[in-house]
Amino acid sequence: MTPAHTHPALAEASPGTAQLLAAAGAVLAVALYLTAAARLRRRGDAWPLRRDASFAAGGIALAAAATATPPGGAFTAHMAQHLVAAMAAPLLLVLARPLTLVLRTLPPGPARRGLLATAHSRPAAWLAFPPSAALLDVGGLWILYRTPLFAAVHDRPLLRAAVHLHVLAAGLLFTFAVCRLDPLRRRWSLPWRGAALLAAGAAHAVLAKTLYVTPPPGTAFTGADLRTGAQLMYYGGDLAEAALGAALATQWYAATGRARAARDRRRRGPAAAPARRSPRTRTRTRSEADAGTRPSSPRGAAPVPAQLHRGDDAREGGRPGD
């Protein structure tokens, strides 16, 4: 009979090579993000500081989850790391709109066109389809905890690293699909995203309740440790899903306000529309409005395209100053 054992990653007194590499990768991602955001601001473009703070917090949380051992039993500590890596950190990272930042900082060329084409491709649209993203996220957790996979990662560093990578990637994909902040080929409607969030939350809660009673197959945790970890998964998951729901509600409120303003403009009719200006007047007015936000071209040189300095939030999935 195969002996039962606890999760090996939590039995180590110090982080291994894989954990240190994961932490270094998270810190490097934060450094690259902050550098790109600073470059954007030096160019005269607007990029809210709250996005910098959100991405930095998410990266630091990932680094801490990879290297620190939370207090409590082995299963409780593992579940704390799971909540950070699969739910809290992905939300913080996605709210920072990293893909939009990359598209705005990349110069026009093959790299930018290729990235935008990938984001607008049909496979990317279906991969970010909220129900399929929820199935990959929560379905992977059911396979991890309700099959012998959780015990099988013992003495298998590559398998353990692959499992952790899947948990993080699935959490990022699901959060990305529900928030829908960065550019995609197809923007799934609010009912699709809300239903996927509710279904994923229910499946996550049911999984936590099963773990409260029965440990993952092939493991031996104390009863108190198992119950505490399951409760942490249940209530911590509720908090993370409530935060994701709040982000979804904020988008709905903003979209409703824009739709109401558009209806009011249509109701007022042409009489309320601003007087048309000549092309020369419009050019001069736009130049004055852009003063201080777009660098001037040298005398005699061709004008610098606006998207190189300000970005096109409308095309890239965001709104100016949002």
TrEMBL record:
Pfam families named in the record: Caa3_CtaG
Location of the region described as Disordered in the Swiss-Prot/TrEMBL record: 259-322
Biased composition (Basic and acidic residues): 309-322
Membrane-spanning ranges: 20-40, 52-71, 83-103, 124-145, 157-178, 190-212, 232-255
Keyword Transmembrane belongs to the record: yes
Membrane topology summary: Multi-pass membrane protein
Keyword entries, A-Z: Cell membrane, Membrane, Transmembrane, Transmembrane helix
Subcellular location: Cell membrane
Protein name: Cytochrome c oxidase assembly protein
Native source species: Streptomyces enissocaesilis
